[in-house]
Write a structure and sequence with these properties.
homodimer; alpha/beta; Barwin-like endoglucanases; Pyrimidine Nucleoside Phosphorylase, Chain A, domain 2; Aldehyde Oxidoreductase, domain 3; 3 domains; 6-stranded mixed β-barrel; 4-stranded antiparallel sheet; about 40% helix
Chain lengths: ~500, ~500
C-alpha cells in the first residue's frame, strides 16, 4: 500500500460541491491503478475518506509524489497540508443500479430510495449521476409509494427537530411567482397571535430570491439549531435558513443540480417540501400554490394534482396539510430580488401608504388559513384575526423582535446601478411573463447580488403611455446591468402592452 | 471590453472533454460579471471562441490578470501561451428547452434534435446537461421518427464522405464480445472480390481493443480523408481509424457521458452506428449483433428489437441494413488485446494450422452476407465465395496490399511479461465471464499497451485437468502483470470449470 500514497496539496480550486482530485498522468498511482480522466477515486487519510472525480494533470502543476484536492474535497476530508493519503479505485456505488432501474422505468422500493439518498448525501455520486437521477425521476415519474419513500428517505438522511409542543405551524409557497414574499408577514402575524411557527426557509433555487435570501437582507439567517431554539423559545417563531440546521440535506445536493438543469419534478417537489416540514417538526402546514401561465404551476389541473399529492403524502407522514390555490398571473408586490422584496415586506409591516396591497392581502389570507388549521381561530375567522394583528402593529413588533433575537435588524441594501425599461408603445398592460422577468432579475445578479433585481412599476390592466417606465432594473455591477439589458433587448415583450381586447 | 481581458495560462488539467476555465475569485472579470462556481463562461480570442464551465480559484494558482484553461479548452480554442482573451457570461443555450421538453415526455422534431446536437458539438452543453439529455432519451424513449432525426442530426453535424460509386459496403459489430476481430478479414475478402469497402473503425471505448487499435499493430491507421481516398482508389478498401475524419463527432461526446453513467439506450446506439455509416458514405451495411449473458446484447428479444430498429432507421436514411444475430457466449478466437487479436487475424489470413476456427467461420459468414447484400453474389452463394477468397490467398494478398497502401505492413509486438492462469480443479469449462476477462486484459495494459492482453487456451465445453493453463496473461511491464494478477486472484471464477451438469 505504501507506493499508493501521495502527499496532498490544496490547489484552491472551487469546483462547487463536486469533490475533484488532481493527479499527475505519469505518477505511479495513476499508472498502476489504471486511472483515466473521469475515473472515480477513493482518497483515504488516517482519519477520513471520500470519493472524488479524477482530473489528470500534465505539466508541472503538481510535483511527483503529490496529489491536488479541490476545495470541497479538501474540506470534506478535513485534510492538512502535506498530509499523506492513499488512493484507489472507488468501489462501485451499489445504489446506482437503482438509478439505472429507474431510468429504465422500474419502480423503486423505500430501501432502494434511501440507499440512493444516503450515497448522494455521502458524496458518492458524481454530478452527472445526480443529473441522471433527477432526470429519471422527472421523466419516468414516481408513484405515490415512491414519493412517500423519497420523502421519508430525505428525512432519515438528515437531522430532525423535535419541539415540545402539540401544534407546530408552518407555511410554504410552491414558488414560481416572483415577489411572492408573504412568509415573513405570515410568520410575524401567526407568532404575534401565539401560535408557534419556527420557520426554516430555503435560498433561491431557480428564482431570483428565496425567503432566506430576502430575510438575510434584514437579519442573520444562518443560525444553528440551538440558536434557532433560543429564538423560538423567546418569540414563538423564527425566520432562518434551513440549510444551517441540516434538515433534509440531500435535498440541497439535488436542488443544486436541479437548478443547473432548470428542471422540476412534481414528486421531487413534494418530497422536497414535505421532508423539510417533517424534519423541522411541523404538524400543521399551509401550502400556497400560485397558478398562472408563467408560474411554476401553470393550470388548475396541475395544481389540483399537486395539491392532492401534498395532502396524501402529508397524511402518510402524519402531518396536516392544507393547500391554497392562488392567482399566479402576475408578480406579487413590486420588488423581485432579495432586497427589493424585503422593501415590500417592510412597507406592508409598517403599513406605509405605498405598501403593495396584493402582497398584504395574500399574506393575510395565508395567515388566516394557518390560524384556522392550527385551531387558533374558528373556520372563517382566521383572516380577520390576521388582518387585525397586522393593522394594530402587533405583527410588526413581532417581526422586529424575531430579527433582534436572530442577531439584530438592518435595512436592505440599495443597488448602485439601475435603469428603466420603458414602454415602446401606448396601451394597457396585457400580460407579464413571470419566467422571463425572473430570468432578467437573475441575469442582473439576483439572488447572490442581494440588491439586484427588478422593481415593477405597472400591474396587469394598467394604462401606459409610450416611453413610460414599465420596470426598473437593479444591479450591483455595470457588467451585470449590461448583461440583463442585453436579455431584455432580445425579449422586448416581457411586459406586453397593447390595445385591450 | 479591455478590462474584461485576461492572459491565458495552460494549467495542464485534463478534465476529459468538458472545457473548464479557471479564474481567480478576486479578479475584476469574475467580480464585474458576477461569475460564481458552475457558471458557464464565454471565452473569446482574436481567432476563436468557446463556452466553458467556470472553476473559481482561491490562493495563488493563478496570478492577478490570468485565467487558466483545461486541456480540452486550450485545444478547442487553439490558444497560445500568454495570449489575451475576453470573458463574458455565456448566452443562454436555447436548445436546452428541447431537452427539457423531452424530459417531460414530449416528442422532439428533427430541427429541435439537430439544434441540440449542434450545441453539444459546439461544446455549449455542460456534462450534467448531456447526462440529462441521455437519461431522457433512455427514460422517455424515442419514437422511430425521433431516432431517424437523431441519426440525421448526427450526420449533419459532422463531415460526410461521398464516394463516386453506386455500392459502398460496410460491416459493423455492436460489440461487447472480446476478440471478435472479424473486420480486417471481412474487409480483405470483400475488397479482394471487387466490392468497395472503405472501413473506418473506432478505438476501444470500454473494451481492451477496438479494430483501429488492432490494425495499428499492423499498419498506420491515422489517415486523413485524402490519404484514405488514395488507399480506397487503389485497393477498393481500407482499414483506418474513423476519428481522424470527424464522422459524427457529437457521438463521441455523448458516448463519453453514456459510458460514465453506464447506461445504454437502444435509440442512441442505433443513431450512433448508423450516423457513422451514413456519414462514411456507406450504402450497404451488415451488422453483427452478438448475444450472450455478458455481451452488450443479452438476449434474443433485445437483439430482435435492436435489429428491427437498425433496419427501419437504415431504410429511412436510404441505406440497406442487414443484421446478423450471432453467438456471444464466449470470446472469439484466442487473443484479447490489440496485438494478440492481430495475431489471430494473421493466422486466419495465412491459413495457419493453428488459426482459430471460430474467428474464420464468423468472418466468412459476415463477408458472405456483405457480398450478398451488395449484390455481388446471389443469395446463398456469399459464404462459399468468401471462403474461397480466403483459402486461395486472394484475401491475404488484399490485406497486405491495403496495409502497404496505408503506409507499410509490420508484425504485431510480443509482450515481454507473461504468466499462465491455471485451472484449480478438473472438469469442463462451464462458463466464461467476458466482462471480467476484458477487465483483466485492460488491467494488464490493453489497449494502450498494444502487446498486453489475454490469450485464451480453452473454449466452452473443453475438458481440463487441474493445473492446466486456462489462459495466458500478457503485459509490457512487470507492474501491470502484477496488477492484473491481483484482479485474477480476487476473481478466480472468470473461467468456470466444474462437473458438466
Amino acid at each position: 500500500m505504501a507506493d499508493h500514497a501521495l502527499r496532498l496539496v490544496r490547489l484552491g480550486i472551487d469546483t462547487h460541491q463536486e469533490p475533484v482530485v488532481y493527479m499527475r498522468a505519469d505518477c505511479h498511482v495513476c499508472r498502476s491503478e489504471g486511472f483515466t480522466a473521469h475515473s472515480r477515486v477513493r482518497v483515504t487519510t488516517d482519519s477520513s475518506a471520500l470519493v472524488a472525480t479524477l482530473n489528470v494533470v500534465r505539466g508541472d502543476l503538481l510535483q511527483p509524489g503529490e496529489a491536488g484536492l479541490s476545495e470541497s474535497a479538501w474540506t470534506r476530508l478535513a485534510a492538512r497540508s502535506a498530509q499523506t493519503a492513499r488512493f484507489s479505485h472507488a468501489p462501485p456505488v451499489e445504489s446506482l443500479s437503482a438509478v439505472r432501474a429507474k431510468i429504465y422505468g422500474h419502480a423503486l422500493t423505500e430501501p432502494q430510495i434511501e440507499g440512493v439518498l444516503r450515497d448522494v448525501a455521502a458524496g458518492r455520486y458524481a454530478d452527472i449521476e445526480i443529473a441522471a437521477l433527477l432526470t429519471a425521476f422527472t421523466s419516468a415519474g414516481l408513484s405515490l409509494d415512491e414519493i412517500v419513500g423519497l420523502t421519508r428517505g430525505m428525512v432519515a438522511v438528515g437531522d430532525q427537530i423535535h419541539w415540545d409542543r402539540e401544534i407546530v405551524a408552518d407555511k410554504h409557497c410552491v414558488g414560481g411567482l416572483p415577489g411572492n414574499r408573504t412568509t415573513p408577514i405570515v410568520v410575524a402575524i401567526v407568532a404575534a397571535l401565539g401560535v408557534c411557527i419556527p420557520k426554516t426557509s430555503s435560498r433561491a433555487i431557480t428564482s431570483p430570491a428565496g425567503t432566506a435570501d430576502t430575510m438575510e437582507t434584514l437579519t442573520a439567517v444562518d443560525l444553528d439549531l440551538p440558536a434557532m431554539r433560543r429564538v423560538v423559545e423567546r418569540e414563538g417563531g423564527c425566520l432562518v435558513w434551513g440549510g444551517a440546521v441540516r434538515l433534509s440535506p440531500v435535498d440541497d445536493l439535488l436542488i443544486r443540480i436541479e437548478r443547473a438543469l432548470d428542471i422540476d419534478s412534481e414528486a421531487q417537489l413534494v418530497a422536497s417540501i414535505l421532508s423539510k416540514k417533517v424534519a423541522a417538526g411541523s404538524t400543521h402546514v399551509v401550502i400556497d400554490i400560485p397558478i398562472g401561465p408563467s408560474a411554476k404551476v401553470r393550470d388548475a389541473q396541475s395544481a389540483a394534482i399537486l395539491s392532492r399529492l401534498l395532502e396524501q403524502v402529508g397524511r402518510q407522514l402524519g402531518i396536516s396539510v392544507r393547500t391554497l390555490l392562488t392567482d399566479g398571473t402576475q408578480p406579487v408586490g413590486r420588488g423581485i430580488g432579495p432586497a427589493l422584496e424585503a422593501r415590500d415586506v417592510l412597507a406592508v409591516m409598517r403599513a406605509s401608504p405605498d405598501a403593495p396591497r396584493d402582497l398584504r392581502d395574500r399574506a393575510v389570507t395565508l395567515a388566516g388559513e394557518v390560524l384556522e388549521l392550527a385551531g387558533h381561530c374558528a373556520i372563517g375567522r382566521g383572516e380577520s384575526a390576521a388582518s387585525a394583528a397586522l393593522s394594530d402593529g402587533r405583527a410588526w413588533a413581532k417581526l422586529q423582535a424575531i430579527c433582534e433575537a436572530q442577531g439584530g435588524m438592518r435595512e436592505p441594501p440599495q443597488a448602485a446601478h439601475r435603469c428603466d425599461q420603458v414602454a415602446l408603445g401606448a396601451g394597457r398592460v396585457l400580460a407579464i411573463d413571470n419566467r422571463r422577468l425572473s430570468r432578467a432579475a437573475k441575469l442582473a445578479g439576483a439572488p447572490s447580488a442581494k440588491a439586484a433585481g427588478i422593481s415593477l412599476r405597472v400591474r396587469l390592466g394598467d394604462p401606459v403611455e409610450s416611453g413610460e417606465p414599465l420596470f426598473e432594473l437593479h444591479a450591483e455591477t455595470p457588467g451585470e446591468l449590461e448583461y440583463a439589458r442585453g436579455y431584455l433587448d432580445a425579449h422586448p415583450d416581457i411586459v406586453r402592452v397593447g390595445a385591450a381586447g
